[in-house]
Amino acid sequence: MRPQTTPTPPTWRTALAIGSGGLYALLFPPFEQSLLAWVALAPLLAALATSPPKRAFGLGLLWALTATIGVAWWFPAMLERYFELSTGLAWLGLLGLGVLVDGLPYAGFGLFVGWGARRGALGPFHVAGAWGVAEWIRANGVVANPFAQLAYSQTGTTISQTVDIAGPYGLGMLIVAANVALAGFWIPPLGGAHPLRRALAVAGVVALAFGYGQWRLQHDFGHGEALRVAVVQGAVARELEWDLSSRDASLDRYLELTRRTAIASPDIVFWPEFAVDFYLREATVQRARLLDEVRSLGADLVLGGSHYRYRPEDSDAGRGTDYLNSVFVVDGLGRLHRDRYDKRRLVPFAEYGPFGDTLRAKTAVYVPGAEPALLRTRGLRLGAFICGEALYPEIARELAVAGAEILTNPSNDYWFGHPQAAAHQLQVASFRAIENRRFLVRPTSTGVSAVIDPHGRTLTRSRGQGPEVLFAELRPSSAVTLYQRIGELPILAAFVLALSALWRRPPPLPGGKS
Question: At what angle do helices 53-71 and 103-119 cross, to 10 degrees?
Fold first, then answer.
């Protein structure tokens, strides 16, 4: 016999899904209610487990749409500015993101839970595995959206230290398992015959994770002498396209702020993404001024700017010019290093067109870099990843595995159009520091600039969106973490866990029914 599920009126199922999506939005800036994550999904799970599979599919879609609107309500204004859309079309864009990009993976998750609950074959870790797969699909689709993943709600908590084992997907799955265990006390298909036993098993894993986090917080990551670094936030509101009329004024702003750093005698000064709007490969007046100023300061300068290269006629794309979003190093002798990092994971529609010329902004002219190239500064190996690449843990991981001793994430948060989104980007970047146990320097054009330690703690950050200079000391690290070794293996394990529900024999429910 099929297990009996607790009857829940369709209206209440809908309310539970919408309410859970609203609670999910409270996990991220500006609210940042991290403890709420451990219960926020229980209403959704209750609705899914008491619904037929087709209806659970729709509820998963509804939950994702609600959460997307709650987290990214600022998104339409960004679309209006970048794509010159009307307000109505911009909001349709957000709805499309919520349904097609975010919604479908969680609709599939809902289908899985609805089907598994009717079969009586779901345990907390089966559901958690399905959630992990849904998050991975959302973050790695043709149009990917890794924004506001569940693990990032735990910024600043002890349990966030576990991401150096299983990455953000692993921590997200643990939180989901706890929500399943909670819902299982009221929903028999989730609690099985012994909901307390299941809850205690999950609580044991959570306790181990918390203990591991406490232990990791006692470790000191770093070796050698401390480096003095300065971060320059120029407060130059820069779009992806250049404004040649303000080129000299922008350079003047950055050079003037950089002169202020001399009081701290920094070893390295960091400028943000697109800090200069001239090509460093060309012998221009602006480049000469920049090199002279760096030479007089005596510190190495790490900065972002555009680069271009010529394609030969026999290339796949034919003869032409490729444009790249890059990071460069100018050493304290005023020499531009040949090594540079080219952004590898571009922003769809804004930096490149995933569908050719369809829905393509006029700034979408860039091509991706080919490899995780390291930069040399002060005898150290520096791993740079640019702006939105912070959303992809594999980018920073590959740099650390390649030998990066310090990480930097030069960014241009101006395009978000709202400080809430920039604050979340900082949260995400802090996880890259924990996963690889490296100091991370994050210079941005208009905030939030920061220096983050290997425990994900912010050592210093900009106070607002205006011009500012930050100072900090950090040390190189060559720590090797389990996450560096296994990468996204937890996602494969999650997939296997979810699939195991297909052949798992349903356990008996209370009353001896099966």
Answer: 140
Nearest one of 210, 242, 189, 291 to 412, comparing CA atoms: 242
For strand 268-270 and strand 227-233, is the pairing parallel, antiparallel, or unpaired?
Answer: parallel
Q: Report how far residue 47's alpha carbon sits from residue 468's, in angstroms, rounded to the nearest whole number.
A: 49
CA torsion, ordered 212, 218, 222, 227, to nearest 10 deg = 130
pLDDT at 349 over 70: yes
23 and 146 fall within a common domain: yes
Tokens read off for 227: 């480096």
User: How crowded is residue 193: how many other Cβ atoms within 10 Å of its Cβ?
Assistant: 16
Whether residues 295 and 427 fall in one domain: yes
> Is residue 127 classed as helix, strand or coil in its secondary structure?
helix
Residue in 260, 251, 327, 264 with CA at minimum distance from that of residue 292: 251
Domain span at residue 279? 227-478
Element (H, E) at 382: strand 380-384
Better pLDDT: 59 or 363: 59
CA–CA dist 298, 259 (Å, integer): 11
Exposure class string for 261-289: b at 16+ Cβ within 10 A, else e: beebebbbbbbbbbbbbbbbbeeeebbee
Burial class (CB in 10 A: 0-12, 13-18, 19+), 249: exposed
Of residues 338 and 504, more confidence is placed in 338
pLDDT at residue 307 in the model: 95
- HEC letters along 309-353: EEECCCCCCCCEEEEEEEEEEECCCCCECCCCEECCCCCECCCEC
What is 133-170 written as a DSSP string?
Answer: HHHHHHHHSSS---TT-GGGGGTTSGGGGGHHHHHHHH
Q: Do 281 and 244 have their domain in common?
A: yes
What's the average model confidence in pLDDT over 86-103?
Answer: 94
Q: Residue 422's domain is classified under what CATH number?
A: 3.60.110.10
The rounded mean pLDDT for the chain is 91
Q: Could you tell me if 372 and 392 are in contact, meaning their C-beta atoms sit under 8 angstroms apart?
A: no
Are the beta carbons of 136 and 109 closer than 8 angstroms?
A: no
Amino acid at 149: Q
Q: For residue 508, is it within any domain?
A: no
| Residues 175-224 pLDDT 10s | 999 999 999 999 999 988 899 999 999 999 999 999 999 999 999 998 88
User: How much of the chain exceeds pLDDT 90, in percent?
Assistant: 75
In this structure, are residues 376 and 339 in contact, taking their beta carbons and an 8 Å threshold? Answer: yes
